[in-house]
Amino acid sequence: MPRETYGRHLRELQDELRVLASMVEKAIARSILALRERDLDLAHQIIAEDASVDGKCLEIEERCVQLIVTQQPVAGDLRLILSIIHVLDELERIGDHAEGIAKIAVMIGDEPPLKPLIDIPRMADKTRDMLRRSIEAFVNRDADAAIQISAEDDVVDGLYDQVYRELLTFMLEDPKTITRATRLIWVAHNLERCADRVTNICERTVYTVTGKIDALRASNY
Question: Which residue among 53, 137, 190, 212 has its CA within the 20 to 30 Å range from the CA of 24?
Fold first, then answer.
């Protein structure tokens, strides 16, 4: 395969990674919308569409493997392809978390809301922003941006702690709210894990650029 064609294949892989990340980001947004609007049809649709995310992950991974087998890349190119495979796994898991939120929305059904959703949508918005920027940092080999994005995980963690404390107060004051509060804690936990996965993507960006694995968040694995 000519070097020019090989380079084109590498660029195409990264473009496909952007497409996959967009699919996952959209799934997060729509799962929160389904939760807020009690839209069970939308929730079921998100659950069904997770298969498309899984299929896209597998498709890109197969292309990565094919490129390794046929071109036997070394050094930087090999790190890049292996990192793409790693990022695929993180995106697939983020998609699973979005699906998990949709399943919780189905469980909640049309029961009356425990409280207005404020901090949970904020968690989702911040996570989606971090995800979008982390993929751009990866594609652009911007290790400095990746490190900065990873540090923003503290914002999501802070919102999660706030949601947890507030819902725990509801449960302590009125045991009848335990089931509804617990489900919202599950939602917040899914979003917190999504942000952790984004940090893992940032770590992989640093590795791609420097060749060194430095855990930006040791607890993410």
Answer: 212
For residue 74, what pLDDT is reported?
82
CATH code, residues 3-220: 1.20.58.220
The answer to whether 111 and 170 are in contact (CB under 8 A) is: no
Give 173-184 pLDDT, tens digit per residue.
Answer: 999 999 999 999
> Residue ranges of the domains in the chain?
3-220
What would the pLDDT profile of 149-180 be if each residue is shown by its tens digit?
999 999 999 999 999 999 999 999 999 999 99
Q: Provide the token pair at 132.
A: 């979008």
Q: How is residue 219 annotated by DSSP?
A: G
* C-alpha to C-alpha distance for 143 and 44, rounded to whole angstroms: 38
Residues 77-123 pLDDT 10s: 999 999 999 999 999 999 999 999 999 999 999 888 898 999 999 99
Which helix (H) or strand (E) is 193 found in, with range? helix 178-210
Pick from 69, 82, 80, 86: which is nearest to 7 by CA? Answer: 80
Measured distance CA(42)–CA(137) in Å, rounded: 31
- Whether residue 4 has pLDDT greater than 90: no
Contact 46, 96 (CB under 8 A): no
DSSP 118-187: -HHHHHHHHHHHHHHHHHHHHHTT-HHHHHHHHHTHHHHHHHHHHHHHHHHHHHHH-GGGHHHHHHHHHH
The number of C-alpha atoms within 13 Å of 194 and in the hemisphere containing its C-beta is 35
